Amino acid sequence: MRLMRASEIIKRPVVTMRGDDIAQVKDIVYAAHGGAVGGFTLAGRGMFAGPMKLGLSWHAVVALGADAVMISDESALEATSVVFDAAVTGRGGGDVIGSQVLTDSGVDLGLVIDVIIAASETVGGQCDVVGYEIEASEALGTKGTKLLIPLPDTIAASAEHLMVPASARDFVSHDLAGFGAAVTAFRAQLDGAV
Amino acid sequence: MRFSEATGRQVVATSTADTVGRVDDFVVDPRRRAVVALSLKRTDGGDTLLWTDILAFGSDAVTVTSGDKIVDAAPAIIALSGKEHRLIGKRVLTAGGDDIGTVDDVEFDADTGTITSLLLPQGDVAGARLVGVGSYAVVVRPK
After folding, report:
1. How far apart are CA A165 and CA A152, in angstroms?
2. Quick check: helix, strand or coil at residue A35?
3. B131 to chain A: which residues are within 8 Å by CB?
4. B135 vs A20, A63, A121: nearest CB
5. Check: complex ipTM more than 0.95
């Protein structure tokens, strides 16, 4: 598993195994009601800059690295509509930015400023949404600081609010380095509580 | 032998002892992980010498039987030539999508043309890991 901020993936080049950059990531298409990355919309690069009619489904991604999205070849791209249909977009994607995170006990934890995803490092694996980066509220003691908050497998979301279990606040992290362990611990704790 | 030391080397015909060209660039087929041809300059005829037409890649000269081994590049060679397919100076990406540096030089086997390693400031990458050489990057398999 490899953690990264969704905002870091935007503009990352899409590179074939032959070493050609044939597109760059324009935006992320979320699937499973915002719980996973379904794929990407793309933009052209260099002299072909601008939106493209082709997109990239997550299943066609060979690897999502720190510096490039790797695909086998051009045939991995599909019509953007296919990528959207397959994802059956739910809420919880890029449009969560600015939403308020509320615990199920009614405490405001802060506003979402980024989405944290975990890309599987094996081909065919999932690309999960595992947390949000939030601008913390007073409830977390350090108003205005950026914190990472883990998410359960599924969350309830409305136009303004994202509901998380109250225990999520016990698993906040300050950086991505320690966040993977926090997500695992948080989800294990939730499973145990059921 | 390295690309840097072999560039500029004279190509000499054994039949006439004439210098028939100089090594300008290397045409690499990433699938075979080998040099398949040399691009030459200062020739009378074409600009391409196929690896299979080289008699010997010596420390002071590349020998060929005669100057007529130097030909115009065939489409398959052209497809592997040019800036897009050059290794030197290009960024190296792993198949996992991580940038691991830039190719400073390339080491090859002077007998077979096989690429033995890519030399990066961050360390050498075995030639056997080479996957592709494209417009954006050299792609290598993870260790």
Report:
1. 8
2. coil
3. 17-19
4. A20
5. no
